[in-house]
Amino acid sequence: MKIEGQPYRSLWWSDEKGCLEIIDQRWLPHELRIQEVRSLDDYADAIVQMRVRGAPLIGATAAYGLAIAMANDPSDASLAAAYDRLHATRPTAINLRWALDRARTALAPLDPERRAEAALALAREIAGEDVDINHAIGTHGLSLLRRLAVEAERPLNILTHCNAGWIATVDWGTATSPIYQAHDAGIDLHVWVDETRPRNQGALTAWELGSHGVPHTYITDNAGGHLMQRGLVDIIITGTDRVTRRGDVCNKIGTYLKALAAKDNGVPFWVALPSPTIDWTVSDGLREIPIEQRDPREVSHIQGAGPGGIAEIRVTPKGTPTRNDAFDVTPARLVTGFITERGLCPATEDGLAGLFPDLIARR
Ligand code: MRU
Question: What keywords are assigned to this protein (predicted)?
């Protein structure tokens, strides 16, 4: 996508510099800062600190991280250590394990001397595939939005939570891809953007939509149900960090409450789902998906970036106990369906298996 008219991706490999470059998302939406990522420590830090974030982007970054480890030391021990180091960075988004597993499976049988080149080629392939997958999600989502837009007879109101935009992927985004494509196709639409405390990923979505000229309004996390009751939301589209084989959806904390309110108000609740985000090994999302617990300071303080750096302001009385679950699980029964790169399907095991018989069979 574009920033001030210039085409960008959220990460890119620089042959000239011999390193990966990323948009450091901690500074957005205030400042565009590009960071060079060189060592395995840099990679792990970029994911842990959420300089890169969003399930697909974490996966692509980890693939490049493994390539760097192989360039430095292509031994079996180094491959195992780099895998473990990167895998431990964040626990919930399955794309991380998916990318690392794919890379390890491809690299382990190779002669160590061939691993560095193969690992870099594979990382580029994973990043490229992500772009294609998200573009295809947008094309399928566009037909869904087109249908709803005809029924709406006024600008179509879409609500989204967190940032499942192009900076959460390599390009296009998942939830935003249908929105960008519908906007570009001339469909009259407007997006309600949940702020998504505590990290305020909604501000990233607002920045993206604003850069692309998509009409939008930033709202508090608690406003969605109220807007749905008043008929001001036609469809919800979110991204996801992990979907189980039966269709439970793990996504940013607060997604479940939106799905509940959507059910009560008859608002369709769709999830944009790239196939690498399906975890075929688990079924019951509530019991089987590890939920990341983040620093309680993100709850007790509000963060923003300014000229002096990243600033924090306390909002709670000193010493107030706080808890910071980063994700929640929306049961499949609350999900209208998935928008995948192969088309739309119901949020059921049969629905997913129907679109991805090849992937389910491998498990
Ligand atoms: O904690 P984050 O910012 O990495 O969480 C991101 C989300 O929850 C996204 O909705 C999800 O990863 C899908 S991104 C296409």
Answer: Amino-acid biosynthesis, Isomerase, Methionine biosynthesis
